[in-house]
Design goal:
52% of the residues lie in helices and 14% in strands. It has nine helices and eleven strands. The strands form three sheets. A seven-stranded mixed beta sheet has the order 7-8-4-3-5-6-9. Strands 1-2 form a two-stranded antiparallel ribbon.
């Protein structure tokens, strides 16, 4: 891959992450990136890199130290996810730590070092529970499943040996597997619906962070290409039409990043008991809406400016444009999050909307 020039994750808007941590992450990912990708088989699971992340405490970055984690916050985890997205490294770190690990603790279930992912259960035509498009289920040791139950949602921590896996891929070639199991295996504690709602927003924020990281990489690649590609005796970045497209890419990428950073701050405050769920829900919805719409502009115009070379497997661009499009459709579409913004703003009413926006 070419050298990348992404914004410094140690100084994102409104919060600061230890620059030594960011440097460590970048050095590790640079040595391993990009994750191998086969056009038909999809992205391979890099077990060696996972073991390194685990040994450094990065695979369970936000897990409390009492549970064997690093006890960090959303700020550090957002830096990690941004760097992974910008390096085209695909591993289910967020699902393992921020989603499955968090839900196990919320449900009062033990947390150990087994690699986990997470799935939402529905029922198939045969009356069997199924979770569709579960991230990297085939590479997990267990899947944390959430299903509707009496008085709330049932949380089941199910070993891979008890699951029937049907392998699949998302648009970017990442594993998204359907998981089936016997109803008797779907047992566990019941958590309130509010916990499930917060899980949905946490998952939405994870994908927003990743989309923003991919878009920033698209911007850097496009700037590099347009400043080095020469036509009619000068770099194409000197042409006004190209400058307009670059300005659009930069503006949309910056908007997505600002919205994501605001949501990350809210998530960190929520975990620290300093913010309520309504504030987090609204800011995550805004971040997902902004990132989703930004992806449309950035992907289209980045490919337009790269021309034919940007569509080849030999060029890096497709790794980030496909990822951005795939991630923006997971845990709710852009339209879903647009509606969520409208619903929350309407619920807040004229008296509460300003406070919701500015808190």
């Amino acid at each position: 891959m070419t050298d990348r020039t992404t914004p410094d994750a140690s100084a994102t808007a409104g919060y600061v992450v230890d620059p030594d941590l960011v440097a460590t992450i970048r050095d590790l990912l640079t040595a391993s990136a990009p994750t191998p990708r086969d056009p038909e088989a999809g992205i391979a699971f890099d077990a060696a890199l996972w073991d390194k992340l685990d040994a450094l405490g990065l695979a369970r970055l936000t897990t409390p130290e009492d549970d064997g984690g690093s006890g960090a916050t959303w700020h550090e985890s957002a830096a990690l996810l941004t760097e992974m997205a910008a390096a085209a490294v695909s591993l289910p770190v967020a699902e393992h730590d921020l989603l499955a690990g968090w839900l196990l603790r919320a449900a009062g279930l033990p947390v150990d070092n087994r690699r986990r992912t997470i799935g939402l259960v529905e029922w198939d035509d045969e009356g069997r529970p199924v979770a569709r498009a579960v991230p990297s289920a085939r590479h997990a040791d267990a899947v944390v499943l959430v299903s509707a139950g009496d008085g709330g949602r049932v949380v089941a921590d199910v070993a891979l040996s008890e699951l029937e896996i049907t392998e699949g891929l998302n648009l970017a070639g990442e594993p998204r597997d359907d998981v089936r199991l016997e109803p008797s295996a779907l047992t566990g504690p019941v958590v309130a619906d509010d916990v499930a709602h917060e899980l949905f927003h946490r998952a939405g924020l994870v994908r927003a962070i990743q989309v923003a990281g991919a878009l920033e990489r698209c911007l850097s690649l496009t700037l590099e290409h347009t400043t080095t590609r020469v036509q009619f005796g000068r770099p194409i970045s000197r042409f006004q039409a190209v400058q307009h497209l670059l300005a659009d890419i930069a503006a949309e990428t910056s908007l997505a990043r600002a919205a994501v950073d605001a949501a990350v701050r809210a998530a960190a405050a929520r975990d620290a008991g300093e913010a309520d769920g309504a504030s987090l829900a609204f800011l995550v919805a805004v971040a997902r809406s902004c990132a989703g719409h930004a992806a449309s502009v950035v992907v289209r115009q980045a490919h337009q400016l790269h021309g034919a070379i940007g569509t080849t497997l030999e060029h890096d661009l497709h790794r980030f444009t496909l990822a951005a499009l795939a991630w923006r459709s997971e845990y709710g579409s852009t339209q879903t999050w647009d509606r969520r913004v409208a619903e929350l703003a309407t619920t807040a009413g004229t008296a509460g909307l300003w406070g919701l926006i500015t808190r």
